Amino acid sequence: MPASRSASAPAPIPNFLSRLSAARSNLGPSARLVADYILQKASTVVGMSITELADKTGVSEGTVINLCQQLGAKGFQQLKLSLAQELVQPVHFIHEDLEPSDDIETTCRKIFHSGAQALSDTLSVLDPVAMTEAVRLMTQAKRIEVYGIGSSAPVAEDANYRLLRIGLESKVVIDSHVQAISASRTGPDVAVLTISHSGATHETLTSTRLAHEAGARTIVITNFTRSPIFAHADVRLLTMARETLFRTEAMTSRIAQLCVVDALIAALALHDFSRASQTLQETFDVLSLKRF
């Protein structure tokens, strides 16, 4: 007996509208028309065919299909299933842009809410299988290198600090020239952790590519499923942070990146709990010399 349609239907994608909103700024003009229509009329799109949506937005059916694939959907049917799930169990968006007229109380509320939303959305897309693989690669490596440029540089420095605290051999490189040199001199016994919100920053993309070509195992933390840096990543850890006019990528994306790093460090520490605990105590004793 042939399998039923429901048995073979693709699973809905969690927080699909959040994914779409986060990806919007990186879309081409035609795909952005479709994205805006979906964001504004999600309930209508659920009942439409791909031809109807293409006609409504003035684009080709191929553009709609490409948008689905960019968002991780296998096709238009999975997009509609994902929308339907959110409409039945809606995710409450707290995605308010700051206005010049906002007072201090309103500004604080919007920033705190957007940070909380970024953490919730990131948790929904963070792949535990990918996290497990990242832990495996990093614990097997003789050395870990951490790369970040611009607003991702402080997150890279924090990751390096925490790796050292749990006893892993690590170094952070945030200068683009030194990054390229260091990456080219890695090898199969090195794991590289690259942090890049867009995944399209020329410097970190080049360094990650050089490390990958040198045989290093590469782990990337980024926000977009179609980031060009993914071509050079062995493991992909996704965040989901939506930036707006006044909230540059140094804000909500940084919060999401830091939480992914914290989860990764915790998983690494638990992998070898005795060693991590001992090293934490030893480094605590060393740092105690710095305190009055």
TrEMBL record:
Q: Which CDD domains match?
A: SIS_RpiR (cd05013)
The record's section on InterPro entries has: Homeodomain-like_sf, HTH_RpiR, RpiR-like, RpiR-like_SIS, SIS_dom, SIS_dom_sf, WH-like_DNA-bd_sf
The keyword Transcription is assigned to this record: yes
**Sorted alphabetically, which SUPFAM superfamilies does this protein's record hold?**
Homeodomain-like, SIS domain
Superkingdom is: Bacteria
Locate the SIS domain: which residues? Answer: 134-274
Name one molecular function that GO assigns to this entry: DNA-binding transcription factor activity
Q: Which UniProt keywords apply?
A: DNA-binding, Transcription, Transcription regulation
Q: Which GO terms describe its biological process?
A: carbohydrate derivative metabolic process
**Any single Pfam family the record assigns to this protein:** HTH_6
> Which residue range or ranges hold the HTH rpiR-type domain?
14-90
Q: Which PROSITE patterns match?
A: HTH_RPIR, SIS
Gene3D superfamilies per the record?
Answer: Glucose-6-phosphate isomerase like protein, domain 1 (3.40.50.10490), Winged helix-like DNA-binding domain superfamily/Winged helix DNA-binding domain (1.10.10.10)
- PANTHER family given for it? GLUCOKINASE, HTH-TYPE TRANSCRIPTIONAL REGULATOR HEXR-RELATED
Its name, as the record gives it, is Transcriptional regulator, RpiR family
